[in-house]
């Protein structure tokens, strides 16, 4: 048996004070090491076994587990560290075992009924590996567990700390939330409104409610359960729009559960202006108004602490115990015991029914309250960045809801309504009803660009690839993460402060960088090494780039509902600002793989800030920059002033190469969805030719099902990443066959990758191998091709894939791209034109040098690296502070730094150090 010993650390290097809804992470495993997830167990820092739920996130081609999901419950204090080990080491008695009515099933045995996990369809209730039809027996854990009982179309979830009833159909996501046998919330529902004009507060606002039409139990415990709900919003006229997916994630022993809400905007930008989007719960209130409590998070951990009818600050003092009890959320003494005649006079104290917090921008919130709907709002406070959590309840129970990224995702809001009645409403607004309507129209009128000639001419000045009708937001999406926490009574504000911290910054376990490196996963990278001055200088540059972008997010306020998570593409040193308003120079939309740069940087450093920057980018680029419905479903959009504005709709943006790392490290179901929804994206070439405007044979070429022009760079790398992800996650044989088949075809092409483009048969999933030409794009390798080919060659070398000729074709491309024209002509018959991005491509040369053990080629790679990026000069690594009045507020700038160069320089530095670091000094400028 292969020894498994994978250390896990908390992302922030310290155990959190609570894990809210448990914790989930992923760990990599060598091929053949683990055939069933049941072979894994978990130990805490003291070496004691910890109950854990394990399942396969992905498998190797031989069927062994490649990445395993690990879930821990919330029934114990978190350990400082953990280790994933062989289950026999974790406990000879099998502490992770689950019991089944038919006997005892060791951990993971249920999953191992299938060689590979299968993703549940919309009709079945399933675990991550197989399918549990409705009514399947529950799983029982030796310790605290999550149970899920089918109830008609819905489910009854019990974590041991709370019980949640899910109707499974109709207007409510959640029917009831109970804690200690008492219902503390009901009717959890999605709300929205829209209007037909963009003017604020138009009189035609139409309200809608989300209706659930599908309910699937994706994971059935024992320590983690996941319920997926799907549906659409319906208005009073019967219109359905805004399709949504909501996942409720439960953990054993946790009263808090996560709610992950994703929706697709499928409206008409010219007539559908969203005016609100929120999640509301009804909270029963049973006690007198003075024992009903509001807690609303301000900034930096602060809270508003008030009661519906306050007993502090009055002309008559009810007594210190009364005042203290109300502020602490405890039952006040009986009114008859109040001092100062306050019992008799209390009828004159107004009851405050409604509270409202609005975060309409990243730097300011307002907080108000009123006594009734027909009375004015009274100012409470103003502040900076609210932590985005509100609680309402009384001494018999209540509910808190928090939104991750609350102020960063503005315009947001928190509402409590009717707190003076027996049923208050607590609403978390993802788009505040007091904000300007969401306006997704294209930002200019086209400027007269009616044909390709005009559009290509305009590209020369603003770098914007415009085409009428293509700048639509129809089909883009957005994801929010919330925490929902019931309480048996109003909690101490310190408990809510902990809840806020865990909501704003989710506790996350990750393998150590050393463990990830030992597993040799996700590309070519090494751990930081500062043992020589030359290496240290490059590590300093890598750190500078990461620090600079992390700082730019806040300095440049890269926030907002549709923007949060992305970065800008190019800089304008004259205005001292990023080119937010200039065509294709604005939002980056994954151009030249900043996603891969950030994730690879995290793998080797373990930096928490880099992980979160990468995670936010994964959320954004996967949702907002990709179409999930409509004619371009499966395609992403090139960089633009608006994320959906460019007419270049391509797989290079939607590629799973940018999502796999997040899924493998977290087990996140939504990220898995984003990758798997692309499995048929090869069909997009039938609907849209990505190079239609610049194709030399544009007049002759028309997309045909049996002969689709597919580029071997940005196009095939995205398809390969898609097929690989689908195959390793679900075992889809169609994706396997298309991946391996096209690899063999590339190997059979006379010029391999230098062919540039091949004709693809959509029905067979194969390339025509007769094309014989040399045609190269400098963009081919910089959208994930390097990384996916590295993985595929490793699979070939390990005997996991049989694709004759592919390895040689890739090594040829890596070896010759930066070779001399004479060397290229000698081997290819022609010297390809369009050889650019030398620094970015130095990592290809480094890969060839590493594979061949060729030091001279390694030196050539380093010389190309030090020649510099496309626009990057020494000023790119020198931050200069610019002060008012030349700018709105103090900012740092690196005058020659563009995100293209930052991403590719980062990747080239990391990969070159890993592959040919021993030749660094020889390849440096002035080296002899």
Q: Your description of this structure?
A:
The protein is globular, with a radius of gyration of 29 Å. The longest helix has 23 residues. The chain contains 22 helices and 40 strands. With 928 residues, it is an alpha+beta fold. The protein has four domains: 117 residues, no CATH class; 288 residues, Beta-galactosidase, Chain A, domain 5 (Distorted Sandwich); 36 residues, no CATH class; 383 residues, Glycosyltransferase. Helices cover 25% and strands 26% of the residues. The two termini are 50 Å apart. The protein has a 20-stranded antiparallel beta sheet that branches. Helix 14 packs antiparallel against helix 15, helix 19 runs antiparallel to helix 20 and helix 20 packs antiparallel against helix 21.
- The CATH topology label of the largest domain is Glycosyltransferase
Q: Overall mean pLDDT score? A: 93
Instruction: Give the biggest sheet.
Output: 20 strands, antiparallel
Q: State the name of the first-level CATH class of the largest domain.
A: Mainly Alpha
* Total of DSSP H or I helical runs spanning 4+ residues: 22
Radius of gyration, CA atoms, in whole angstroms: 29 Å
Query: Regions with pLDDT < 50 over 5+ consecutive residues?
Result: 92-142
């Amino acid at each position: 048996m292969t020894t498994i010993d994978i250390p896990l650390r908390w992302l922030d290097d310290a155990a959190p004070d609570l894990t809210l809804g448990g914790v989930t992470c992923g760990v990599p495993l060598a091929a053949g090491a683990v055939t069933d997830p049941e072979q894994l167990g978990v130990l805490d820092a003291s070496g004691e076994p910890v109950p854990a739920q394990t399942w396969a996130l992905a498998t190797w081609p031989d069927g062994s587990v490649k990445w395993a999901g690990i879930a821990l419950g919330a029934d114990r204090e978190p350990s400082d560290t953990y280790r994933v080990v062989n289950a026999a080491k974790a406990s000879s008695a099998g502490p992770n075992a689950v019991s089944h009515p038919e006997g005892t099933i060791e951990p993971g045995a249920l999953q191992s009924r299938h060689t590979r996990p299968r993703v549940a369809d919309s009709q079945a209730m399933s675990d991550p590996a197989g399918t549990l039809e409705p009514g399947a027996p529950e799983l029982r854990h030796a310790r605290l567990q999550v149970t899920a009982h089918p109830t008609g179309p819905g489910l009854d979830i019990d974590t041991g700390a709370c019980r949640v009833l899910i109707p499974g159909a109709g207007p409510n996501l959640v029917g009831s939330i109970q804690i200690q046998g008492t219902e503390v919330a009901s009717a959890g529902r999605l709300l929205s409104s829209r209007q037909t004009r963009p003017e604020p507060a138009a009189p035609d606002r139409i309200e809608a409610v989300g209706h659930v039409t599908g309910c699937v139990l994706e994971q059935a415990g024992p320590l983690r359960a996941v319920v997926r709900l799907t549906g659409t919003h319906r208005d009073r006229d019967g219109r359905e729009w805004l399709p949504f997916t909501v996942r409720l994630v439960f953990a054993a022993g946790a009263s808090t559960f996560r709610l992950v809400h994703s929706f697709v905007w499928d409206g008409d930008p010219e007539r559908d202006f969203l005016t609100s989007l929120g999640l509301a719960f009804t909270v029963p209130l049973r006690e007198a108004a003075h024992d009903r409590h509001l807690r609303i998070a301000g900034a930096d951990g602060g809270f508003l602490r008030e009661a519906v009818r306050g007993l502090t600050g009055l002309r008559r003092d009810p007594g210190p115990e009364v005042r203290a009890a109300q502020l602490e959320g405890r039952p006040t003494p009986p009114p008859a015991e109040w001092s100062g005649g306050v019992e008799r006079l209390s009828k004159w104290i107004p009851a405050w029914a409604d509270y409202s917090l609005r975060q309409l921008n990243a730097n300011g919130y307002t907080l108000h309250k009123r006594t009734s709907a027909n009375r004015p709002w009274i100012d409470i406070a103003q502040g900076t960045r609210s932590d985005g959590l509100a609680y309402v309840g009384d001494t018999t129970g209540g509910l808190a809801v928090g939104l991750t990224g609350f102020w960063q995702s503005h315009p947001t809001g928190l509402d409590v309504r009717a707190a003076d009645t027996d049923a208050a409403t607590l609403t978390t607004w993802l788009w505040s009803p007091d904000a300007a309507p969401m306006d997704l129209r294209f930002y200019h009128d086209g400027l007269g660009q009616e044909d390709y000639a005009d559009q290509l001419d305009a590209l020369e000045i603003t770098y914007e690839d415009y085409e009428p009708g293509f700048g639509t937001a129809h089909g883009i999406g957005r994801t929010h993460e919330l925490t929902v926490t019931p309480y048996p009574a109003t909690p101490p504000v310190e408990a809510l402060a902990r809840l806020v911290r865990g909501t704003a910054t989710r506790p996350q376990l990750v393998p150590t960088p050393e463990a990830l490196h030992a597993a040799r996963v996700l590309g070519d990278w090494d751990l930081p090494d500062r043992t020589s001055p030359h290496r240290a200088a490059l590590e300093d540059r890598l750190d500078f780039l990461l620090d600079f972008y992390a700082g730019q997010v806040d300095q440049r306020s890269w926030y907002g509902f549709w923007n949060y998570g992305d970065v800008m593409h190019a800089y304008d040193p004259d205005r001292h600002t990023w080119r937010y308003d200039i065509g294709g120079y604005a939002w980056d939309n994954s151009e030249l793989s900043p996603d891969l740069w950030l994730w690879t940087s995290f793998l080797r450093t373990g930096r928490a800030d880099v992980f979160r920057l990468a995670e936010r980018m994964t959320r954004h680029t996967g949702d907002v920059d990709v179409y999930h419905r409509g004619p371009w479903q499966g395609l992403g959009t090139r960089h633009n002033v608006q994320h959906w504005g460019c007419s270049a709709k391509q797989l290079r943006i939607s590629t799973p190469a940018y999502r796999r790392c997040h899924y493998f490290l977290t087990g996140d179901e939504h990220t898995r969805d984003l990758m798997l929804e692309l499995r048929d994206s090869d069909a997009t070439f039938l609907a849209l030719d990505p190079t239609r405007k610049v194709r030399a044979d544009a007049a002759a070429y028309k997309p045909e099902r049996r002969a689709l022009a597919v580029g071997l760079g940005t196009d095939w790398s995205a398809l390969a990443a898609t097929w690989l992800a689908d195959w390793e996650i679900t075992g889809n044989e169609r994706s396997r066959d298309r991946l391996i088949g096209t690899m063999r075809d590339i190997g059979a092409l006379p010029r391999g990758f230098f062919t540039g483009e091949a004709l693809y048969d959509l029905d067979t999933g194969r390339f025509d191998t007769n094309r014989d030409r040399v045609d190269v794009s400098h963009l081919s390798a910089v959208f994930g091709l390097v990384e996916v080919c590295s993985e595929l060659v490793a699979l070939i070398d390990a005997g996991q894939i049989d694709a004759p000729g592919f390895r040689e074709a890739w090594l040829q491309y890596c070896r010759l791209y930066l070779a001399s024209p004479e060397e290229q002509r000698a081997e290819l018959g022609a010297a390809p034109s369009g050889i650019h991005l030398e620094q970015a491509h130095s990592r290809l040369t480094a890969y060839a040098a590493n594979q061949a053990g060729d030091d001279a080629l390694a030196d050539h790679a380093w010389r190309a690296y030090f020649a510099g990026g496309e626009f990057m000069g020494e000023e790119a690594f020198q931050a200069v502070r610019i002060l008012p009045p030349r700018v709105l507020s103090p900012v740092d700038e690196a005058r020659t730094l563009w995100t293209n160069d930052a991403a590719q320089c980062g990747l080239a530095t990391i990969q070159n150090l890993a592959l040919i670091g021993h030749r660094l000094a020889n390849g440096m400028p002035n080296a002899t």
